[in-house]
Amino acid sequence: MKAYDIKKGNVVEHNGGVYQIRDIERSSPQGRGGNVKFRFTMYSVPGGSKLDLSVGGDDELKEVELSRRQVTYSYRDGDAFVFLDDEDYTPYTLDADVVGDAAGYIVDDLTGCYIQIIDDLPVAVQLPQSVAMEVIETPPELKGGTATKRPKPAKLSTGLEIMVPEYIGNGEKVWVNTTTGEFGGRAE
Fold first, then answer.
1. CA 183 to chain CA mean position, Å
2. Over its length of 188 residues, how does the chain's per-residue pLDDT go in tens digits?
3. Cβ 12 vs Cβ 60: under 8 Å
4. How many domains does the chain have?
5. Which residues contact 32 (CB under 8 A, 6 or more apart)?
6. Residues with Cβ within 8 Å of residue 97, at least 6 apart in sequence
7. Minimal CA–CA distance to 81: which of 112, 110, 119?
8. Could you tell me the strand order of the sheet in which 17-27 lies?
9. Are both 53 and 91 inside the same structural domain?
10. Of 32, 79, 88, 152, whose CB count within 10 A is highest?
C-alpha cells in the first residue's frame, strides 16, 4: 500500500517488524516538482516501542492484517496472563514480557480489554483507558494539611505505585489512567 493511503490505526510491516500507525504528519515541498513526505509515528506490535519513519508519498509499505477481540482477564498461569474472549470464551495466553508494563494495571475480572491478533496468534493486549484499583498502603493524611494539595505515594493491589491526593486512605478504590499511570479519582 502506498504511504499516502495509510491511515491512523493501520498496521504495517517495516524492517521485519510489525508496527501500528499512531500519528501521521504530512509535509508538502515548497519548490516545484518536490515530493510529498509523510512522517509516521509507529509503535511495535507486540512490545509498544516507538519508531518514527519518514517516507515519500509513493513509497510502498506492506499492510498486515490485525484483528481485535474483546476479552476479559481471567487468571494468571505462571508468568502468563490468560484472557477469555467475551463472545466465544476462547482463551488467549500472553507471556509477561509481551504484556510488559501493562501487567501493573491488570486486576481480577478486568473487562474492556482487547487482544490484538496477527495470523491467528495473540500479539498484544490493549487495556481500557482507566482501571479501578484498591489502595493497599499509603501514609495517613496529615492533620491541618487540607489547604494544600500535596500528593502522597500509594501502593496498589497489583504492586503498582502512584501518587494520590492526601484524602485517599488504605482500602479505598481509585481510578488509574492506564496510559499515564496517574490518579483519576475515587472509584465506586
1. 16
2. 888 788 777 788 888 888 878 788 888 777 666 678 888 888 877 666 788 888 887 888 888 887 889 999 999 899 899 999 999 999 999 888 778 778 889 998 899 999 888 878 888 888 888 999 999 998 887 666 555 577 889 999 888 999 998 888 899 999 999 888 899 888 87
3. no
4. 3
5. none
6. none
7. 110
8. 50-56, 37-44, 17-27, 11-14, 62-63
9. no
10. 152
Residue with the three cell numbers 501502593 = 155
165: CATH: 2.40.50.140
**Which of 25, 44, 63 is the C-terminal boundary of a domain?**
63
Domain boundary among 105, 128, 151: 128
Amino acid at 17: G
Q: Which domain holds residue 10?
A: 3-63
